[in-house]
Design brief:
mainly beta; Methylamine Dehydrogenase, Chain H; four-stranded antiparallel β-sheet; 1 helix; globular; Haem_d1_sf; S9 family peptidase
C-alpha cells in the first residue's frame, strides 16, 4: 500500500467497444475521471511515458492522447494533449526520453491490410509540426523507437519478413500529403510469423519475436547491426513460437509466452504455453510450463510476472516469482482461479472471434495485478505478494472483448519499457 503522503495507485480501464476510458483509484475503485466517446486502439494499448504520463490512440477520432493520471489531483484535466495520427493504430512506441513517438497502422475492421501510413510525432517540435504522416509498406508492422541523438524508427514487417529502419528526423522532415518514404536500411527476417517487439534503452538493442527465435539488431550509429537470434529452447523445452514480447525494466529481462500444440484454432484448449525469459545482462534464459489453453499478454509487477490462462476447465491468474538476486531463477508462485466469463471461448470455436477475453495489468513499482472479466463489466484486483484477491471493481460498461487496462503507481519506472502494451 502507498505511504499516506503518496498518491494511491490508479487504474486506467478502457472499454474500446463502448467508447469509454475510466480512471480509478486503487484499491477502492473510486472513479477519479472518465472520458466518454473515446475508443482505445486496443492492439496498440497504453504506453507509459516519463513524468507519469500515459499515451494511447483513440482509433475512432484518429488522435494520440497524452493522459495525465494524477493531473486531476492538481486541477488539471486527464487529457493533457491531443495529436492527430493515422489510424487504425496497430502499434505505438516512444524513444526513451518520451519526446519522439511513432504510430503504425494495421487492418482495423478490414479483411486485408490496406494502409501503410506511419505517423511520427515530436512533442517538442520547434516549428509546431508535431505529427507527420508518411506512406510505407502495407501490413501490420510492429514498431520501436531507439534512443540517442538521432533516434531510429524500426518497423517489423511480415510477408516478407523484414525490419525497415527510418531516421525519426527524416520522417519529421517529410513534405505534406503522405509521401512515400524509403527506409535507410533493411534487415531480413523470417517470413510471416513475426509477433512482438521490444527495445532495451541501455544496450540499444531492438528485439523482434518470430517462430525461429527472438531476432536482434543493435543501434549502431546511423543504422542497426544484426546479431545472432535468441532461441526459444531452454530448460529442456523446445518448439513453439513466442506470441508476445516485452521488456521488464525491474529485472532487465525479456519475457514472452511460447505457444505450441495443434495449429487448428478450434483446438485451442490443447495449445501448450510456456513462460520464456532472458536476462539481458547475463544471457541466462529459461522456460516454465504454464498449462494448456489461451495465454497471451503478461504484466510486470515489482516482484512477479502475471499471466492469465483461459481454458474451458477454468481460467486462472498465474503468478511467477521473479527474484532479482544473482543466479535466482523465476518459478511459479501461485495459480489463482478467475470467475468464468459467460461469453468465454468454447471448444471447437476460435478463442478470438465473437468471444470474451481478459486483459491484465500491473505496475513495476507495486504488487497489485488487475484482470478484467470481459462482458461482465468487472475488474478483479489481486495482491501478488500475498497471492490473494483484494476486491472486485465494477465498471459502468460491459468491457466487451475484455477491455484494456493500465495500472499506474507514482515513479514506477514503467517508461523503461518504451513500447505500447
Amino acid at each position: 500500500m502507498p505511504h499516506p503522503s503518496q498518491p494511491p495507485p490508479r487504474l486506467l480501464v478502457a472499454d474500446q467497444v463502448a467508447g469509454r476510458i475510466s480512471l480509478l483509484d486503487l484499491p477502492d475503485g473510486g472513479e477519479v475521471a472518465a472520458l466518454d466517446h473515446r475508443h482505445l486502439a486496443e492492439h496498440a494499448g497504453f504506453l507509459a511515458l516519463p513524468d507519469g504520463l500515459v499515451a494511447c490512440v483513440d482509433d475512432r477520432a484518429g488522435e494520440l492522447l497524452l493522459l495525465d493520471p494524477y493531473g486531476p489531483d492538481a486541477g488539471r484535466p486527464l487529457v493533457r494533449r491531443r495529436i492527430p495520427v493515422a489510424v487504425p493504430a496497430e502499434h505505438l512506441a516512444a524513444a526513451p526520453g518520451g519526446r519522439r513517438l511513432a504510430v503504425t497502422t494495421g487492418l482495423g475492421r478490414n479483411e486485408e491490410p490496406w494502409t501503410g501510413l506511419l505517423t511520427a510525432v515530436d512533442l517538442e517540435a520547434p516549428d509546431g509540426a508535431v505529427a507527420v504522416r508518411v506512406r510505407g509498406r502495407v501490413g501490420e508492422p510492429g514498431v520501436t523507437v531507439t534512443g540517442g541523438p538521432s533516434p531510429l524508427v524500426v518497423l517489423r514487417h511480415r510477408e516478407p519478413g523484414e525490419l525497415l529502419v527510418h531516421r525519426h528526423e527524416d520522417l519529421m522532415a517529410a513534405p505534406p500529403s503522405c509521401p512515400p518514404l524509403e527506409p535507410v536500411q533493411r534487415v531480413g527476417l523470417p517470413d510471416a510469423d513475426g509477433h512482438g517487439d521490444a527495445y532495451d534503452p541501455v544496450t540499444g538493442r531492438v528485439f523482434a519475436a518470430a517462430g525461429s527465435g527472438v531476432h536482434r539488431v543493435r543501434h549502431d550509429g546511423e543504422g542497426v547491426a544484426p546479431e545472432a537470434p535468441l532461441p526459444w529452447a531452454a530448460d529442456g523445452r523446445a518448439g513453439g513460437r513466442g506470441y508476445y514480447l516485452r521488456l521488464d525494466p525491474v529485472r532487465r529481462t525479456l519475457w514472452s509466452c511460447v505457444r505450441g500444440g495443434p495449429s487448428a484454432p478450434g483446438r485451442w484448449p490443447e495449445w501448450t504455453n510456456d513462460a520464456w525469459w532472458h536476462r539481458l545482462d547475463t544471457g541466462a534464459t529459461g522456460r516454465l510450463e504454464l498449462g494448456p489453453g489461451l495465454v497471451f499478454r503478461l504484466a510486470v509487477t515489482a516482484r512477479h510476472i502475471a499471466y492469465t490462462r483461459v481454458h474451458p476447465d477454468g481460467d486462472e491468474l498465474i503468478l511467477l516469482a521473479a527474484p532479482t538476486a544473482p543466479g535466482a531463477r523465476p518459478h511459479i508462485a501461485a495459480r489463482l482461479p478467475l470467475p468464468a466469463m459467460a461469453g468465454a471461448p468454447r471448444r471447437g470455436g476460435t478463442p478470438w472471434d465473437g468471444v470474451q477475453r481478459r486483459a491484465v495489468a500491473a505496475s513495476p513499482g507495486a504488487g497489485l495485478v488487475a484482470v478484467s472479466r470481459g462482458g461482465h463489466g468487472e475488474v478483479h484486483l489481486f495482491n501478488a505478494d500475498r497471492a490473494a484477491p483484494v476486491t472486485t471493481l465494477t465498471l459502468p460498461t460491459p468491457l466487451d472483448d475484455g477491455g484494456h487496462l493500465a495500472l499506474i503507481t507514482p515513479d514506477d519506472g514503467a517508461h523503461g519499457d518504451p513500447v505500447g502494451r
